[in-house]
Write a structure and sequence with these properties.
Blueprint: E1 2-6, E2 9-14, E3 20-22, E4 25-27, H1 31-34, H2 37-42, E5 45-51, E6 61-62, E7 67-71, E8 76-80, E9 85-86, E10 92-93, H3 96-100, E11 113-115, H4 118-135, H5 138-147, H6 153-175, H7 179-186, E12 189-190, E13 196-197
Parallel strand pairs: 5-8
Antiparallel strand pairs: 1-2, 1-5, 3-4, 6-9, 7-8, 10-11, 12-13
Protein backbone atom coordinates (compact mmCIF):
# COMPACT_ATOMS: atom_id res chain seq x y z
CA UNK A 1 0.00 0.00 0.00
CA UNK A 2 1.28 3.44 -0.93
CA UNK A 3 0.54 7.02 0.06
CA UNK A 4 0.43 9.90 -2.39
CA UNK A 5 2.14 13.03 -1.09
CA UNK A 6 1.03 16.38 -2.44
CA UNK A 7 2.26 19.74 -1.13
CA UNK A 8 3.81 18.13 1.95
CA UNK A 9 0.85 16.06 3.10
CA UNK A 10 -0.96 12.82 2.31
CA UNK A 11 -3.51 13.39 -0.45
CA UNK A 12 -4.49 9.83 -1.25
CA UNK A 13 -3.70 6.14 -1.09
CA UNK A 14 -2.94 3.37 -3.57
CA UNK A 15 -4.03 -0.07 -2.37
CA UNK A 16 -2.40 -1.98 -5.20
CA UNK A 17 -0.18 -1.13 -8.19
CA UNK A 18 -2.07 0.67 -10.94
CA UNK A 19 -1.52 3.37 -13.50
CA UNK A 20 -1.67 6.82 -11.95
CA UNK A 21 -1.64 10.41 -13.15
CA UNK A 22 0.50 12.83 -11.21
CA UNK A 23 0.50 16.37 -12.52
CA UNK A 24 0.26 16.02 -16.30
CA UNK A 25 2.04 12.68 -16.46
CA UNK A 26 0.38 9.27 -16.66
CA UNK A 27 2.60 6.65 -15.04
CA UNK A 28 2.05 2.94 -15.81
CA UNK A 29 1.43 0.37 -13.06
CA UNK A 30 4.82 -1.25 -13.72
CA UNK A 31 6.64 1.61 -12.00
CA UNK A 32 5.72 -0.05 -8.70
CA UNK A 33 7.75 -3.14 -9.61
CA UNK A 34 10.70 -1.64 -11.48
CA UNK A 35 11.29 1.72 -9.80
CA UNK A 36 13.25 2.11 -6.59
CA UNK A 37 11.73 3.61 -3.46
CA UNK A 38 13.69 6.80 -4.09
CA UNK A 39 12.37 7.08 -7.63
CA UNK A 40 8.80 6.64 -6.45
CA UNK A 41 9.31 9.16 -3.65
CA UNK A 42 10.59 11.68 -6.17
CA UNK A 43 7.12 11.81 -7.75
CA UNK A 44 5.34 11.75 -4.37
CA UNK A 45 4.63 8.04 -3.90
CA UNK A 46 5.79 6.43 -0.64
CA UNK A 47 5.20 2.85 0.44
CA UNK A 48 3.42 2.74 3.80
CA UNK A 49 5.12 1.12 6.81
CA UNK A 50 2.64 -0.63 9.11
CA UNK A 51 3.26 -0.39 12.84
CA UNK A 52 1.21 -3.05 14.67
CA UNK A 53 2.97 -2.62 18.03
CA UNK A 54 -0.25 -1.39 19.69
CA UNK A 55 -2.57 -3.77 17.91
CA UNK A 56 -4.05 -6.32 20.32
CA UNK A 57 -6.01 -9.56 20.08
CA UNK A 58 -9.54 -8.68 19.01
CA UNK A 59 -10.95 -11.45 21.20
CA UNK A 60 -10.09 -9.29 24.21
CA UNK A 61 -9.65 -5.74 22.91
CA UNK A 62 -11.15 -3.16 20.60
CA UNK A 63 -8.46 -1.65 18.40
CA UNK A 64 -8.56 1.87 17.07
CA UNK A 65 -8.51 2.71 13.39
CA UNK A 66 -5.05 3.18 11.95
CA UNK A 67 -3.63 6.70 11.77
CA UNK A 68 -1.41 7.55 8.79
CA UNK A 69 1.49 9.89 9.49
CA UNK A 70 3.85 11.45 6.96
CA UNK A 71 7.32 12.31 8.20
CA UNK A 72 8.77 14.67 5.61
CA UNK A 73 12.28 14.69 7.08
CA UNK A 74 12.49 10.89 7.05
CA UNK A 75 10.51 10.51 3.86
CA UNK A 76 8.23 7.87 5.41
CA UNK A 77 4.54 7.22 5.90
CA UNK A 78 3.54 5.11 8.87
CA UNK A 79 0.18 3.52 9.67
CA UNK A 80 -0.16 2.94 13.41
CA UNK A 81 -2.85 1.96 15.88
CA UNK A 82 -3.68 3.96 18.98
CA UNK A 83 -4.17 2.48 22.44
CA UNK A 84 -6.56 -0.49 22.38
CA UNK A 85 -9.53 -0.61 24.75
CA UNK A 86 -10.19 -3.76 26.75
CA UNK A 87 -13.61 -5.30 26.16
CA UNK A 88 -15.84 -5.38 29.23
CA UNK A 89 -15.12 -8.48 31.31
CA UNK A 90 -18.31 -8.21 33.36
CA UNK A 91 -21.94 -7.79 32.32
CA UNK A 92 -23.37 -4.30 32.04
CA UNK A 93 -26.71 -3.99 33.80
CA UNK A 94 -29.68 -1.72 33.25
CA UNK A 95 -29.69 1.14 35.76
CA UNK A 96 -32.34 3.37 37.28
CA UNK A 97 -31.11 6.09 34.92
CA UNK A 98 -31.85 3.80 31.98
CA UNK A 99 -35.35 3.42 33.34
CA UNK A 100 -35.72 7.16 33.79
CA UNK A 101 -34.56 7.67 30.21
CA UNK A 102 -36.93 4.93 28.99
CA UNK A 103 -34.05 2.90 27.59
CA UNK A 104 -35.05 -0.45 29.04
CA UNK A 105 -36.80 -2.74 26.53
CA UNK A 106 -40.04 -4.50 27.34
CA UNK A 107 -39.50 -7.57 29.48
CA UNK A 108 -36.38 -6.15 31.12
CA UNK A 109 -35.90 -4.12 34.29
CA UNK A 110 -33.27 -2.44 36.42
CA UNK A 111 -30.57 -4.95 37.29
CA UNK A 112 -31.11 -7.12 34.22
CA UNK A 113 -28.26 -7.65 31.77
CA UNK A 114 -27.92 -4.79 29.30
CA UNK A 115 -24.90 -6.24 27.48
CA UNK A 116 -22.94 -9.40 28.20
CA UNK A 117 -19.34 -9.21 29.30
CA UNK A 118 -16.59 -11.60 28.31
CA UNK A 119 -17.05 -13.73 31.43
CA UNK A 120 -20.63 -14.60 30.56
CA UNK A 121 -19.69 -15.41 26.97
CA UNK A 122 -16.69 -17.55 27.95
CA UNK A 123 -18.59 -19.49 30.60
CA UNK A 124 -21.36 -20.19 28.08
CA UNK A 125 -18.74 -21.58 25.71
CA UNK A 126 -17.29 -23.84 28.44
CA UNK A 127 -20.77 -25.19 29.18
CA UNK A 128 -21.36 -25.86 25.48
CA UNK A 129 -18.00 -27.60 25.09
CA UNK A 130 -18.58 -29.76 28.16
CA UNK A 131 -22.07 -30.67 26.93
CA UNK A 132 -20.61 -31.65 23.56
CA UNK A 133 -18.04 -33.94 25.19
CA UNK A 134 -20.65 -35.55 27.45
CA UNK A 135 -22.95 -36.08 24.48
CA UNK A 136 -20.45 -38.57 23.06
CA UNK A 137 -21.11 -40.92 25.98
CA UNK A 138 -24.77 -40.14 26.60
CA UNK A 139 -25.71 -43.40 24.91
CA UNK A 140 -24.26 -45.33 27.86
CA UNK A 141 -26.68 -43.50 30.15
CA UNK A 142 -29.59 -44.06 27.77
CA UNK A 143 -28.75 -47.76 27.46
CA UNK A 144 -28.63 -48.05 31.26
CA UNK A 145 -32.07 -46.43 31.52
CA UNK A 146 -33.56 -48.54 28.73
CA UNK A 147 -31.92 -51.93 29.21
CA UNK A 148 -30.33 -51.79 32.63
CA UNK A 149 -26.83 -52.33 31.24
CA UNK A 150 -24.27 -51.03 33.69
CA UNK A 151 -22.24 -48.02 32.67
CA UNK A 152 -18.49 -48.84 32.67
CA UNK A 153 -16.62 -47.17 35.52
CA UNK A 154 -14.23 -45.58 33.01
CA UNK A 155 -17.18 -43.77 31.43
CA UNK A 156 -18.63 -42.75 34.78
CA UNK A 157 -15.26 -41.40 35.90
CA UNK A 158 -14.76 -39.57 32.61
CA UNK A 159 -18.14 -37.86 32.79
CA UNK A 160 -17.49 -36.82 36.38
CA UNK A 161 -14.06 -35.47 35.41
CA UNK A 162 -15.58 -33.38 32.61
CA UNK A 163 -18.09 -31.82 34.97
CA UNK A 164 -15.45 -31.19 37.65
CA UNK A 165 -13.02 -29.56 35.23
CA UNK A 166 -15.77 -27.47 33.64
CA UNK A 167 -16.71 -26.17 37.08
CA UNK A 168 -13.06 -25.35 37.82
CA UNK A 169 -12.72 -23.49 34.54
CA UNK A 170 -15.90 -21.52 35.15
CA UNK A 171 -14.67 -20.56 38.60
CA UNK A 172 -11.33 -19.39 37.21
CA UNK A 173 -13.14 -17.24 34.65
CA UNK A 174 -15.49 -15.83 37.29
CA UNK A 175 -12.58 -14.95 39.58
CA UNK A 176 -10.56 -13.15 36.88
CA UNK A 177 -10.16 -9.56 38.01
CA UNK A 178 -10.17 -7.96 34.57
CA UNK A 179 -9.84 -8.56 30.84
CA UNK A 180 -6.03 -8.99 30.87
CA UNK A 181 -6.48 -11.67 33.54
CA UNK A 182 -8.96 -13.48 31.29
CA UNK A 183 -6.54 -13.24 28.38
CA UNK A 184 -3.81 -14.79 30.56
CA UNK A 185 -6.06 -17.76 31.37
CA UNK A 186 -6.37 -18.51 27.65
CA UNK A 187 -2.76 -17.81 26.62
CA UNK A 188 -0.79 -20.89 25.61
CA UNK A 189 2.89 -21.00 26.56
CA UNK A 190 5.60 -23.60 26.20
CA UNK A 191 6.56 -25.39 29.41
CA UNK A 192 9.94 -26.79 30.45
CA UNK A 193 8.92 -30.25 29.28
CA UNK A 194 8.10 -28.87 25.82
CA UNK A 195 4.34 -29.08 26.23
CA UNK A 196 2.11 -26.18 25.22
CA UNK A 197 -0.48 -25.39 27.88
CA UNK A 198 -2.65 -22.58 29.18
CA UNK A 199 -3.52 -21.70 32.80
CA UNK A 200 -7.20 -22.47 32.22
CA UNK A 201 -6.41 -26.05 31.26
CA UNK A 202 -8.49 -28.27 29.01
CA UNK A 203 -11.64 -30.33 29.33
CA UNK A 204 -10.89 -34.07 29.59
CA UNK A 205 -11.54 -36.25 26.55
CA UNK A 206 -11.68 -40.02 26.23
CA UNK A 207 -8.51 -41.62 24.89
CA UNK A 208 -8.89 -42.39 21.21
Amino acid sequence: MYAIITDGSISGYINHPKSITIGDVLYPAKIFSIWTASELAAIGIIEITFDDSKKKDTQWYKNTNQTYTYDASAGTVTAAYGDATAKAHADTLFTTQDKTDDRIPEGKDVGDVKSEGLKTQLIRTIKQQAAGILEDTDWYIIRKADAGTAVPSSITNHRAAVRTKAAEMETAITNAADTPALETLYTYTEQEDGSITRPLGELPRLDS
